[in-house]
């Protein structure tokens, strides 16, 4: 049995680049940086950064280009793919990338002004005073097993 599955959680290294193929399909490519922190034998804190090339297609490409910018947190689930091609000088080029099958956007930044967040002026207009939630008091005698739906 073979398995080609990747999960990465990291931050975008640049704004995603959205393109359209000749057939009309949307594709977005972007870089994601992940880091690993550990203590070495001497107890010194060490950090290692890894950079990943990610490609997403279709609706996910549109979402990524619309809502994410450099520094945004993103979880990508996908598969690894290595492509080979010849450049203009006739030399073979090779790259390994993650083909994103599922994406999950990270928490929204309060500083971000993309379509994902409302501008501050709108937020302050729609803020209403907090209402207290009503307290519901149920006596155990009122609950009967035959009334439960499961």
From TrEMBL:
<feature type="compositionally biased region" description="Polar residues">
    <location>
        <begin position="85"/>
        <end position="96"/>
    </location>
</feature>
<keyword id="KW-0238">DNA-binding</keyword>
<dbReference type="Pfam" id="PF00436">
    <property type="entry name" value="SSB"/>
</dbReference>
<feature type="compositionally biased region" description="Polar residues">
    <location>
        <begin position="107"/>
        <end position="116"/>
    </location>
</feature>
<feature type="compositionally biased region" description="Basic and acidic residues">
    <location>
        <begin position="141"/>
        <end position="150"/>
    </location>
</feature>
<dbReference type="GO" id="GO:0003697">
    <property type="term" value="F:single-stranded DNA binding"/>
</dbReference>
<dbReference type="GO" id="GO:0006260">
    <property type="term" value="P:DNA replication"/>
</dbReference>
<dbReference type="GO" id="GO:0009295">
    <property type="term" value="C:nucleoid"/>
</dbReference>
<dbReference type="InterPro" id="IPR011344">
    <property type="entry name" value="ssDNA-bd"/>
</dbReference>
<protein>
    <recommendedName>
        <fullName>Single-stranded DNA-binding protein</fullName>
    </recommendedName>
</protein>
<dbReference type="InterPro" id="IPR012340">
    <property type="entry name" value="NA-bd_OB-fold"/>
</dbReference>
<dbReference type="InterPro" id="IPR000424">
    <property type="entry name" value="Primosome_PriB/ssb"/>
</dbReference>
<feature type="compositionally biased region" description="Basic and acidic residues">
    <location>
        <begin position="119"/>
        <end position="134"/>
    </location>
</feature>
<feature type="region of interest" description="Disordered">
    <location>
        <begin position="85"/>
        <end position="150"/>
    </location>
</feature>
<comment type="subunit">
    <text>Homotetramer.</text>
</comment>
């Amino acid at each position: 049995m073979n398995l080609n599955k990747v999960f990465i959680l990291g931050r975008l290294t640049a704004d995603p680049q959205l393109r359209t193929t000749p057939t009309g399909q949307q594709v977005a490519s972007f870089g994601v940086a992940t880091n690993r922190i550990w203590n070495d034998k001497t107890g010194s804190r060490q950090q290692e950064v890894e950079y990943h090339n990610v490609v997403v297609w279709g609706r996910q490409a549109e979402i990524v280009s619309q809502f994410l910018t450099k520094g945004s947190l993103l979880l990508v689930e996908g598969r690894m793919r290595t492509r080979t091609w010849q450049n203009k000088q006739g030399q073979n080029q090779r790259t390994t990338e993650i083909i994103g099958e599922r994406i999950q956007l990270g928490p929204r930044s309060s500083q971000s002004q993309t379509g994902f967040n409302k501008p501050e002026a709108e937020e302050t207009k729609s803020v209403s005073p907090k209402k207290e939630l009503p307290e519901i008091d149920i006596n155990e005698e009122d609950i009967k097993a035959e009334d439960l739906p499961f």
